[in-house]
Amino acid sequence: VEFYPNGNKKIESNYYKGALQGLYKIYDIHENIERVGQYNNDSLLYSSQFVNDFREPKEYTKYSSDSSYIVFRGQFTQQQIPIGVHWYYSAPQIIDSCIVYDTLGTITGIGIMKPNGKKMGEWKHFFPNGIVSSQGNYDADLKEGKWIFYYETGDVKQVGNFRNNLETGVWQLFFISGKLKSVEQYRGGKRNGEII
User: Are 184 and 170 in contact (CB under 8 A)?
Assistant: First the structure.
C-alpha cells in the first residue's frame, strides 16, 4: 500500500515474486477509488475507470479427464467475457498454446507463453477486427527471425528480420496495393541505408 502525504491511501496492490498480481486500486487524495485493475504476473488483464462497472474477474480451471493435470486456465469477467491470458496444456506443466484477450474479450494474440509471462516460438497478433497484424517468432519475449506485418486489410505491409528484438538485415516495405514501396537495410535496430 502506498499513501499520500496526508496519510490517505494512494495505491493498493499485491505482488507475487516481484510481479503485480491480483487486484490493483488507485485512489484520489480523498481516498475515493479512481481506477481498478486486475494484474497477472505484471500484465494488466482488466482496467476500469468506472468502479461500479468493475467486478473482479474469476479464474476458471479445467482438469484432464482423469483429473491428473490442468488442461485450461483463464479468467472471465462476470459477463463471461474472456480476458487476459488463457493457457491450454497438453500434458502436466506442458503449455500447448495461449490465447491473449483484451479487456473487451477480443483476441490480441495467439502463441506459447511460459509461466513467467515470456512469449516463445511462433506468435500471431491481431487487429481488433480479427485480421492478423503481425506474425513471427519470439525467444524469451524478444522478436527473433523473420516477421511479417500487415495492414488492417490483411495485405502485407513489411517483411524483415529481428535479432534480439532489433531490426536487422533487409526489410521490404509495401504499399497497400501490394506494390513494393522500398527496401531498407537495418543493423542493430537502426536503418543503415535504403536499397531501393
Answer: yes
